[in-house]
Amino acid sequence: MQITRQTIAKALITVFVFNLIVMGGGAIYSAQEVPPIPQEVVGPDGETVATQSQVQAGKIAFQKNSLMNHGSILGNGAYYGVDYTADTLDLKVEYMRDYYAQDRYDTAYSGLESAEQGSVDRLVQDDLDEQFTEGAETIEYSEAEMYAHEQVRDEYVQRYHEGALDRGVAADFIGSEEEASQFADFALWTAWISHTDRPGGDTSFTNEWPYNPAAGNTPTGATMIWSVISMVLLVGAVGLGVFLYKSVELPEPKIKGIEIPPPDEINLTPSQRAATRFIPLAGLLFTLQVFLGGLLAHYYIERHAFFGIEEVFGIHIVEVFPFALAKTFHLDLGILWIAALWLGAGLFLPPLLTNHEPKRQRTFIHVLLGALIVVAVGGLAGVWLGSHGYIDGELWWIIGNEGLEYLEVGRLWQVGLLVGFVLWTALVYRGFKPMLERESRFGLAHMIIYAGGSIGLLFSAGMFYTPETNIVMTEFWRWWVVHMWVEGAFEFFIVAVIGLTLVSMGLLRKRSAEKAVAFQALFVMGSGVIGASHHYWWIGQPDMWLPLGTIFSTLELIPLILILFEAMGQYRALATSNESFPYTLPFMFIIASGFWNFVGAGVLGFFINLPIVNYYEHGTYLTVGHAHAAMFGAFGLLALGMATYMLRISTIPSQWTERRLRWSFWLWNVGLAVMVFVSVLPVGFLQLETAFTQTYGAARSLAFYNSEIIQLLFWARLPGDTLIIIGTLVFAYDMVKKRFTLRDVSDPAESLEEGTIPNRVMAEDDD
């Protein structure tokens, strides 16, 4: 089946506009349907239990103290601590049972006969099974609910202010008793929306999540129906993906019969040499990140210690470097080192393809590199200072720690990153200008510009909320940034960069690569943007997102199938190459990235996004396995492959050696496989079983994590983590060595010599 590039480009534009309409309309509707925060919560006698201002202050305390990177809210956040929504709901049920048992039978609930317990259970469910009245400004508690609220509040003050080392919580984790009490009010409000039905509906604001039969929370009929539909769509999506790959004439890379310029015959321009400076910076950030990853993994085994050092030095590591701070740094460093390599690659490729060196490009690249360092150091310093209480007033979320997972750094530093994306896009535009002038609007250079622009555009969604914004809408916009980056803009960027790289390697003609990239981008953008709505199922968003999230999350499998086929084609090309092919190692990284993308985002991603599975799994170690395989396995390995490619061209040929980089490659891949399949996923499946047979809160409880089998599985992660750390250290050492063996730079020649990369790229007609 012949499909022109123009046809694919028109379809891509249509899909992009459709996405904007759906998600824009959804944003307006979601804002109108946001769960209310009542002006006041009162007891049976009119006594005030909590107020709207207390709940809102509790959300601020939640963010300010980085509680989202210790535990989670509405299933989103870290998995080390409890999920505060599920935990407060469990505690609320427990204390209400105790109240009614004492009130009716003058004994503890555990001492009642089964019939008496059944009677108490019915009273608790009747209290919790309420429907919110549209426009109501006051919530009236029963005596049991009021008692439970006060008890939960006391427990949270004791746990998060006074400290609980068995939970990895140091004293004064939340600085004051008042703030800890307000945080409890906020968490209890999320529990309230989880068991209270929407006006005119028969399901709660969170679609009856989290699972807690004692509170009346069980999966809805829609959750099961759309799970069945998802399975049907899965079969169709797989079939469609295979059909499209076999039917549409897309090129595969070929090595035999193609003239590939040796790396030492390629001009190394001043801007390219400047772009390689992003590599050692990434190596440093990567090294720090993996060491913190090892610390985080060990925290699940010793929550207040680290291999006994507290006995030697008399200090608890949880007090010096708590889990929440370590996880914040771990996430942000991961984003920064991957971004640094992608930024460097995007600036390295233009001269390679165009033989064009814009004036002062090298200087501007150094400015961007310096800005990245300032933002990285400033953002992480702000997080540390904010978490230790050194930033007061409104500045805590502006220059300190905004406290939302993946968007932890203060708003000022986020604006700095946004400006950096804009500057990077402008520099890439300058570098690709000769190609942009010759090719059509759907050419490869244009696609890189579009991808870079969309990354910045989606990041701007993180500016649409403040600490005072309702947590439901805060999460709505946060997932616009996090998920649409990963499943939309970044995937688009990946296929465009791979296409450009294959062209620069001489493995694909530019016109052929443009068709392949546009075709894959069509399905990436067509499924990934609206597919972000699977994050809206249980966080208080309208239930319209359940069918949308189900359909488009399933369709996300299509581009991943295409990417897998592409990786297989690349593997075949690599297998038929000979020893003279100079880019074998970068090629291996690209293939590994495609494999892990399919496993992490495709196989594991589809499984945990099945609605009925996600209902029980949401916020468990199955998500950890999915995230590590997709983020590091796909995006990380691709970034490392691009770094290897840049160094292969930049290094003096006589000084080039692949031995250490090959060791790193296999250490990373084997270590990731051990971590994911031997430790992380087994823990996740046991959590899923616990959530299904008991409650979701039980699956996230300290008792679950401290069980013998789970502790054994946590220890089983050590070999995989160790391999990844060693691989990273070898990589960082090799980066430093190679930085001192770079070739001399030269200005591009005015004429394009026959057989060179720019000659092949720039000479093609735009038909």
TrEMBL record:
One of its GO terms (cellular component) is membrane. The chain crosses the membrane at residues 12-31, 224-245, 278-301, 334-353, 365-391, 411-432, 444-465, 485-505, 517-538, 544-565, 585-608, 628-647, 667-686, 712-733. The keyword Transmembrane helix applies. Residues 464-753 form the Cytochrome oxidase subunit I profile domain. It holds the Pfam family COX1. Keywords: Membrane, Transmembrane, Transmembrane helix. The keyword Amino-acid biosynthesis does not apply. PROSITE patterns: COX1. One of its GO terms (molecular function) is heme binding. It comes from the Archaea. InterPro entries: Cyt_c_oxase-like_su1_dom, Cyt_c_oxase-like_su1_sf, Cyt_C_Oxase_1, NorB_cytochrome_c-like. GO terms for biological process: aerobic respiration. PANTHER family: CYTOCHROME B SUBUNIT OF NITRIC OXIDE REDUCTASE, CYTOCHROME C OXIDASE SUBUNIT 1. This is Nitric oxide reductase subunit B. It comes from Halobellus clavatus.
